[in-house]
Write a structure and sequence with these properties.
The chain has 431 residues and is an alpha+beta fold. 26% of the residues lie in helices and 27% in strands. It contains twelve helices and 26 strands. The protein is globular.
């Protein structure tokens, strides 16, 4: 992965991060991805994205050329690739291709060495099925060209879409299965788009201190929290969209009693990503409704490909004209951003809030311009993340949190099965 000629130059971790920042500032591709921190490098090493130093401890040293690997990983993160996909990519991409990607001279495309049958089998078990390679490498074992020509997959085979990996593989595999079942051996032109069928269940939402709460058919009131990896309920079972699941009575010290006291309203538990990820979740927030679908709707051009960290959706939005990766968190009353992105601004006020890991806290707020969708520009206030939470988000490669204050007047679709996000225009905008 590292050029032999460059690997002889060694430097400390602090010097390596500074070298990566200096190198990244030279290219348009890497100028907006943020400062490289030592803890990020340690996280990349821990997850197997980077090789460990030859020596450990205070005297640990790193090859200077590792800066290219770091920038390559950050570029892939900025396009929404998960740690799992990146771990595969950094093993398969040659040194020169990696550098060309960082410099903006090379594109990546989706490739696979597996047969359609093997892809379908691995998708069913959640195994890795793709690798990243040069754009001209389009020999995938999947009939992309045929599928595109027959309007079954509306993308260019060599498009610069590394963040669409999972969606395209799943879509292609399902189409291949459908073609095989048809028995014709060839793709057919699709007719008019049909609405997806399957289970559709609607609930009414209530608001407790700005947080959405749904009431299930068996009378349980549950906080709807897309920012929590796990669900819990005082009865240790949750019935959602006709399916009952055993859950714990608490998560990370949070319980129904604790939430009820915090929200000053009785709730029975919380539904998080472990259950939400089974569905396409349509949040019709201006109507105070949520709809659970077993199948995702057809993706639109304006929809955003999502990344997922422990089941929590991550959206690349624009804040003050810069791309920022943010958790989409309906369990957060307010929106937040890393302090390094707010250093040049003057505080506009303060905001009190609570987080389960650090308790009550107060943060400064700042006036910003936010765009959750292309062509949007909305003035809002965003708070600075407390330092303890900054550490967690930075390690995950995330810049902030999109909370309910930015979503409450929108329709928001979180298509877990389709791997995309859809943000409607704010109801108050009149557009």
């Amino acid at each position: 992965m590292i050029r032999e000629a460059e690997s002889s130059r060694q430097m400390s971790l602090a010097d390596l991060t500074q070298h990566a920042d200096h190198l990244g500032g030279q290219f348009e591709t890497t100028r907006g991805i943020g400062e490289v921190k030592p803890r990020q490098v340690r996280y990349f090493i821990q997850e197997g994205l980077l090789p460990p130093p030859a020596t450990r401890g205070r005297g640990a040293s790193y090859p200077a050329a590792l800066a290219w690997n770091i920038l390559f990983i950050r570029v892939l993160q900025s396009h929404g690739l998960s740690v799992r996909d990146i771990a595969t990519a950094v093993k398969d991409v040659p040194d020169e291709t990696m550098r060309r990607v960082v410099r903006g001279e090379e594109q990546l495309s989706i490739t696979s060495d597996l047969s359609p049958a093997e892809i379908s089998e691995r998708i069913a078990t959640g195994e890795q099925v793709v690798r990243l390679g040069a754009a001209e490498d389009a020999d995938t074992g999947i009939p992309w060209k045929s599928l595109v020509e027959n309007e079954l997959v509306r993308v260019d085979v060599n498009a610069r879409l590394p963040y669409e990996t999972r969606r395209l593989i799943r879509q292609a595999a399902s189409l291949i299965q459908a073609i095989a079942a048809d028995g014709s051996g060839a793709a057919k032109k699709s007719g008019p788009a049909k609405k997806p069928r399957g289970l559709v269940v609607e609930y009414t939402l209530e608001w407790s201190d700005g947080i959405p709460v749904l009431e299930t058919t068996d009378g349980m009131k549950l906080v709807l929290d897309t920012g929590s990896p796990a669900s819990f309920c005082r009865t240790e079972r949750i019935e959602l969209a006709g399916r009952t699941t055993k859950v714990g009575s608490e998560y990370l010290g949070l319980s129904a009693e604790f939430l009820s006291n915090l929200l000053d309203a009785p709730v029975d538990g919380l539904v998080g990503a472990d259950l939400l990820s089974r569905y396409c979740v349509e949040l019709r927030l201006p109507e105070a409704k949520v709809v659970f679908r077993s199948k995702a709707p057809l993706r639109k051009r304006s929809d955003a490909i999502a990344d997922w960290i422990k089941g929590i959706p991550v959206h690349a939005c624009s804040i003050d004209g810069q791309s920022r990766r943010c958790f989409v968190d309906t369990g957060a009353k307010h929106s937040y951003l890393l302090g390094k992105h707010l250093r040049d601004k003057r505080p506009a006020g303060t905001r009190d809030d609570f987080h389960a890991m650090i308790g009550e806290f107060r943060s400064d707020t700042y006036a910003v311009t936010i765009a959750l969708t292309d062509g949007e520009s909305i003035g809002s206030e965003i708070a600075m993340l407390p330092s303890d939470l900054e550490t967690l988000l930075t390690a995950a490669g995330v810049d902030g949190i999109i909370g309910m204050d930015l979503m409450v007047d929108r329709n928001v679709t979180i298509a877990y099965p389709g791997q995309f996000l859809r943000f409607g225009q704010p109801a108050s905008s009149g557009r």
